[in-house]
């Protein structure tokens, strides 16, 4: 096995496993959960692995009977992530997505089941959010990426040209032939707001298919949680307040078989003339979101959590809360900094201890 295929085994036990979200707001962390009767699961050990995947450090934590089984399963999950990156990445020149963006406007283009599924879900979330989520945002994202590198705002004429080819309505999916047709030349797809959540789901599913159900997969701001660790009632996820000056203790969720996604300005942004521009774009204007903000979504699966966290970031707070409340098993925490300081908003379904702490 080459070193990129062989996951690093971090030796258990761990005192505190931090979800890699230090730069994100609010702070989301993992802690050991309260215990159940121990004897039932005797012999199960905790293993943790990490490797760079999907443009971030992917982390897998799982419980298995022995190290050999744990390492083989984790290696297969990392291989699955690598295969998905080759399909879904818009950074790779030879990914299936890049080839589709290049060739999909001339004729319907046959794609893999994975790419078709993610595009199908993407169009669903675009319709649901009235276009706040839009994977045809690629040409505009590219200009903002260059702007971050150059440290100056994108040229407004170039931005207007890029925005002219954005529109999820111009993606035509044919489920019978599993093809994708892009109706406008120059369109460019970007799955950055949904691919990690989907990949986390897929890695968790792969572990399940190998008999490992107590596992978690963390990919940047995405966290997919399987069955509770042995002897535990769930995974403990700690959500801290965005506002460091608040004295309130962070709230703790004990959850399993759900996904969490945090989307915000914490990871990649452009700071210019005292203004902070996020890597999330409002497709209606082509502008990067401004100001300090983050959205955390809890959903039954990572694909949904990822897409909705981005969509809700773009929407006005009330519309975002309404969107979360319209979906079964979905809840959201929105944090925004206004002239009146940090403000927290939670949807009705957001777990009670956190609603009380943050409101
Ligand atoms: P996330 O961190 O999940 O919110 O995803 C942000 C990434 O998704 C950005 O870096 C862009 O590549 C892409 N993106 C930005 N704005 C949007 C949007 N409104 N809809 C869909 N994808 C977006
Ligand atoms: Mg997202």
The biggest beta sheet is recorded as: 9 strands, antiparallel
Strand content: 25-35%
Helix run count: 9
Q: What name does the CATH topology of the domain at 96-182 carry? A: T-fold
CATH class of the domain at 96-182: Mainly Alpha
Mean pLDDT: 87
* Hetero compounds: adenosine monophosphate, magnesium ion
3D structure, described in words:
By secondary structure, the chain is α+β, with helices and mostly antiparallel strands. It has a domain at 96-182: T-fold. Helix content is 31%, strand content 27%. The protein has 9 helices and 18 strands. The strands form 4 sheets. A 9-stranded antiparallel sheet has the order 1-3-4-8-9-12-16-17-18, with helices on one face. A 3-stranded antiparallel sheet has the order 2-10-11. It has a 3-stranded antiparallel sheet with strand order 5-7-6, covered by helices on one side. β17 (331-338) and β18 (341-346) form a beta hairpin. α1 (67-88) runs antiparallel to α6 and α7 packs antiparallel against α8. The longest helix has 22 residues, at 67-88. The termini are far apart. Residues 1-26 have low confidence and may be disordered. The protein binds adenosine monophosphate (AMP) and magnesium ion (MG). Residues 133-135, 137, 141, 190, 192-193, 221, 263, 279-281, 283, 306, 309-310, 314 line the site of adenosine monophosphate. Magnesium ion is lined by residues 193-194, 261, 263, 306-307, 309-310.
């Amino acid at each position: 096995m080459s070193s990129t295929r062989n996951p690093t085994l971090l030796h258990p036990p761990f005192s505190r496993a931090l979800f890699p979200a230090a730069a994100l707001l609010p702070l989301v962390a993992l802690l050991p959960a309260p215990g159940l009767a121990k004897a039932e699961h005797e012999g199960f050990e905790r293993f943790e692995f990490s490797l760079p995947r999907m443009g971030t450090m992917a982390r897998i934590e799982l419980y298995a009977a022995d190290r050999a089984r744990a390492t083989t399963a984790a290696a297969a999950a990392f291989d699955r992530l690598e295969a998905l990156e080759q399909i879904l990445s818009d950074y790779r020149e030879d990914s299936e997505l890049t080839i589709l963006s290049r060739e999909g406007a001339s004729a319907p283009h046959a794609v893999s089941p994975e790419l078709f599924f993610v595009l199908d879900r993407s169009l669903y979330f675009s319709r649901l959010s009235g276009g706040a989520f839009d994977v045809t945002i690629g040409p505009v994202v590219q200009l903002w990426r260059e702007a971050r590198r150059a440290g100056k705002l994108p040229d407004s004429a170039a931005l207007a040209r890029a925005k002219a080819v954005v529109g999820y309505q111009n993606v035509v999916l044919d489920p019978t032939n599993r093809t994708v047709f892009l109706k406008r030349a120059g369109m460019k797809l970007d799955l950055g707001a949904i691919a990690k959540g989907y990949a986390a789901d897929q890695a968790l599913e792969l572990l399940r298919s190998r008999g490992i159900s107590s596992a978690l997969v963390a990919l940047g701001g995405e966290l997919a949680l399987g069955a509770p660790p042995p002897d535990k009632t769930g995974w403990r996820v700690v959500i801290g307040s965005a506002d460091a000056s608040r004295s309130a203790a962070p709230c703790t969720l004990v959850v399993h078989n759900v996904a969490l996604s945090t989307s915000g300005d914490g990871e990649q942004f452009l700071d210019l003339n005292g203004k902070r521009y996020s890597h999330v774009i409002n497709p209606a204007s082509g502008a990067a979101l401004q100001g300090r903000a983050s959205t955390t979504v809890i959903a039954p699966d990572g694909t949904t959590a990822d897409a909705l966290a981005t969509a809700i970031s773009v929407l006005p707070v009330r519309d975002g809360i309404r969107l979360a409340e319209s979906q079964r098993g979905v809840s959201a925490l929105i944090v925004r900094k206004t002239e009146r300081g940090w403000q927290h908003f939670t949807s009705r379904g957001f777990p009670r201890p956190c609603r009380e702490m943050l409101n």
